[in-house]
Amino acid sequence: VDDVGHDLRLVLVGLDRVGKSAAGNTIMGQEVFESGVSFMPLTLKSESREVELCGRRVMVVDTPGLLNSDLSEEEVRKEMERSLSLSTPGPHAFLLVIQLGRFTEQEKRVMETLEKMLSPSVSDYTIVLFSYGDKLKNNTIDQFIRVDQNLEKLVQKCGGRYHVFNNNDTDNAGQVKKLLDKVDQLTGKNQKNVLSLSTAFIFSKLNMSKYLCEHNKIQQLRHKLSIEILLSTSAPTMLG
Ligand SMILES: Nc1nc2c(ncn2[C@@H]2O[C@H](COP(=O)(O)OP(=O)(O)O)[C@@H](O)[C@H]2O)c(=O)[nH]1
Ligand SMILES: [Mg+2]
Questions:
Q1: Which of 45, 66, 153, 162 is deepest in the core (most CB within 10 A)?
Q2: Which pLDDT value is given to residue 233?
Q3: Which residue's CA is the closest to the ligand 1 atom numbered 27?
Q4: What is the pLDDT of residue 235?
Q5: Ligand 1 atom with least separation from CA of 167
Q6: Ligand 1: residues within 6 Å at CB?
Q7: Containing domain of residue 119, as a range?
Q8: Where would I find the AIG1-type G domain in this sequence (predicted)?
């Protein structure tokens, strides 16, 4: 159980070219995900990498852009499912990357798309991660959010959780540390869900039968464990 508590598994999601891979590199502290100015989308498959940060193992899964023109909706959906199996037993948080200063019709639909592809409760585990923090200049991120009602709505839907990255500022370990603090707040809030979250995702409506076969025994064990933990944490209230 300790192991589950200390490891962090994060999945980067969002539209194409908003800086998902760049944000992944910021967390990793090195260029491991392909990110750049190519005319071709660079990330077509979900990929995972691990790094040790502040004494804990942090796994980052990068995914292809939602609503991108080079993959069909079905292909994107498959890669999103694969991102979950890569982050087995399930992610602690989704980082929804939004490019600062770009909030179009597509961005408005992004959460709907995620709910459809992953789980209707995905926003409960999502932190909005703004890229292009360098664009802020003298403004604060709060000012930025407040001027756009739709953006404000999106942040509210994600429980008011957001963070900014300047992915060009590679020397800024503070911005990564602060993000991890926000993830900890989120998982703390969902404390009893840390285990059930993963099982919930795995056992959700996703078509992961192949994956389930391979991991069936582990999953059954985890499920049993999470039920036991839930029972043990709720026992005092049931008795008293
Ligand atoms: N100035 C600036 N450029 C960024 C930032 N984050 C990403 N980019 C650029 O945005 C482009 C798309 O980034 P990429 O990581 O490939 O986006 P992805 O398609 O969402 O994975 C690249 O040219 C990045 O260098 C940022 O914080 N500031
Ligand atoms: Mg990418």
A1: 66
A2: 55
A3: 132
A4: 46
A5: 27
A6: 16-22, 35-37, 42-43, 65, 131-134, 165-168
A7: 2-190
A8: 5-204
